[in-house]
Amino acid sequence: MPKGPKLSPETRLKAIIDATRAGTWEWNLDTGEVVVNDRWAQMLGYEPEALEPMTYELWQSITHPDDAENAKQRMGAYLRGDVPHFDCVVRIRHRDGHWRWIHTRGQRLEDEQLTANWVCGTHLDISEERETQHRLQRLAESLPGVIYTFVLERDGTYRFTYVSRKSMDFYGIPAEDTLEDPSALFDIIIKDDISEVMETIRRSARSMTEWRCQYRIRVNDDIRWMEGVAQPEEDEVGRIVWHGMVMDITERKQLELELERLSVTDELTGLHNRRYMLRTIEEQIARAERYGDVFSLVALDIDHFKRINDSWGHLVGDQVLEQFARVLRSRVRRTDVVARTGGEEFLILLPNTDLPAARHVAEDLRQATEREHFDNGEGQSFTVTISGGVVTWEDSLSSMRDLLSRCDHSLYEAKHQGRNRIVVTTQS
Ligand SMILES: Nc1nc2c(ncn2[C@@H]2O[C@H](COP(=O)(O)OP(=O)(O)OP(=O)(O)O)[C@@H](O)[C@H]2O)c(=O)[nH]1
């Protein structure tokens, strides 16, 4: 390429400054004289001549008082050598009255030949960026959760690069602290849930699919349910970056758990209901098939219960059911499942219990019931008896239906043989 004439340093400098669209300023510290370029004035809506002669006082008169003071402090710090650069953002009033956000930077001229003391710098209008940032912040504040950006580095370390200010309301941790130390947000997750959170993050990273996880955190001795949702993407250097939101779902979760509890609870006795018992038996059968676990089922039925209702009324009948439920609950193990499956019919699932042991439990319950005194509501007490059937899951059974029908059959036998007894059915 043929070489053209060389550009003068002034022309090159001017071209570069024009390209940055920066305003420039020079301030003579000795005389107070200020020189600005045309762009400096145009940014603020002025013809260059309108701001002449430019002085520190004129600048101060159009700058927001808080920011003018801040700029003064920072300039002082710079001139004293406390900080290496002069750098600050100030609001300067545009000619039409609104504030423009101006990023101003400056440096002392270091030239021994210069006789005067000058500080020169640039002046960039960052109002649009500020506006966008402000809008995003407002948006983040109006969302019902903490929004964040989470980065998993290629070496397996992780950090947050953005956390919205709601972090303070949710976790009592300022957003800045979470940027410095990501563990602040992991340490408050309760122990039982942390592995689920980590595993779902790993799974999301592996499959590059949405991360969604419900977990509990402890804040000021209060346990809160959180739900996090985030979308992963791989950035240009191979890091995985999630943009997402964490919401407090404590109230919804409590309602859900309560509904779940109600849907599996018998209202009168507080024991489990039939639906829960059938689900649990299915699970036990699956475990027995897979791991060879032993379990037994006991069916109990109050004898001549109709007579109780007929003699003393339905309310007394209800009280008998409640009291009998208490007897059952107090005599079985915590791992056993007790359910009221019909009017006066009860089922007890005994995990890790073989037939002789289950028979023993049933017999104990029969005797305990026989000893119990019930109140007829008129100051008289009476006793009741129960009949029961016991079965154990074994190879000859092929389904829950088989198991239940064999259990029913045992119970029927107990009634048939005269009640107040336990009948055990083995393989037929
Ligand atoms: N008080 C009360 N009674 C109920 C409830 N559910 C069912 N029952 C009554 O329980 C009685 C059960 O009667 P049956 O099935 O004839 O049995 P039983 O009288 O116990 O006779 P056996 O089981 O053969 O010993 C019926 O009268 C039902 O109305 C309930 O929630 N509360």
From TrEMBL:
The EC category is transferase
The protein's annotated catalytic reaction(s) are:
2 GTP = 3',3'-c-di-GMP + 2 diphosphate
Per the UniProt entry, the Enzyme Commission number(s) are 2.7.7.65
GGDEF domain: which residues?
293-427
InterPro entries recorded for this chain? Answer: Diguanylate_Cyclase (IPR050469), GGDEF_dom (IPR000160), Nucleotide_cyclase (IPR029787), PAC (IPR001610), PAS (IPR000014), PAS-assoc_C (IPR000700), PAS-like_dom_sf (IPR035965), PAS_fold_3 (IPR013655)
Q: Where is the PAS domain?
A: 9-82, 132-208
Q: Which residues form the PAC domain?
A: 86-138, 207-261
Tell me the SUPFAM superfamilies matching this sequence.
Answer: Nucleotide cyclase (SSF55073), PYP-like sensor domain (PAS domain) (SSF55785)
Identify the Pfam families for this entry. Answer: GGDEF, PAS_3
Please name the CDD domains in this protein's record: GGDEF (cd01949), PAS (cd00130)
State the protein's name. diguanylate cyclase
Which species? Marinobacter zhanjiangensis
